[in-house]
Amino acid sequence: AKAEEQKKKDDDDKKKDTEEKRKREAEDRRKSEEEKRLELQKKMEQIKRAEEEERRQMEDLKRRADDQRRRREEDSRQREKEEADRRVVQEREKEEKERERREREQREQRDRPRGGDDRGAARGADRGAARDDERRRGAD
Predict the structure, then answer these.
(1) Contact indicator for 120, 113 with CB cutoff of 8 Å
(2) Global pTM?
(3) What is the dihedral of CA 63, 64, 67, 71, to 10 degrees?
(4) pLDDT tens sequence across 83-139
(5) Exposed/middle/buried for 27, CB within 10 Å: 0-12, 13-18, 19+?
(6) How far apart are CA 92 and CA 99, in angstroms?
(7) Which residue has the higher pLDDT, 16 or 115?
(8) How far is the CA of 20 from the CAs of 12, 13, 14, 17, 25, in angstroms?
(9) How distant is the alpha carbon of residue 64 from its chain centre?
């Protein structure tokens, strides 16, 4: 009877140990799965943060490229405007020089004695001839 009791007690202990072992293994599996889940969650958050950072960097790059393009366009427009202004100034200067040249030519032409209408020179020549005539008469 004692042996049977001992055997029954041993069987109960064995069942209890098996049950505890099974519970421990189940708990270990649960903990392991929880750790894996947390690890996976951390990795997902890291990926999410990395993607967000990459998106921000791309937006920043795009913004800088747009700013640079706008500055280049503005510089180009400014250069074109300055070039156009410079051409206008050159054209005005050219027109002013041309106008001054024409006015100078007109003045010179006005002031220059003309070949067919040279009254002053003709009068002088007439006077000289008249004087010569008088001398001749006096000598005669």
Answers:
(1) yes
(2) 0.42
(3) -170
(4) 999 999 999 999 999 999 999 999 888 887 665 555 555 555 566 666 677 777 776
(5) exposed
(6) 10
(7) 16
(8) 12, 10, 10, 5, 8
(9) 10
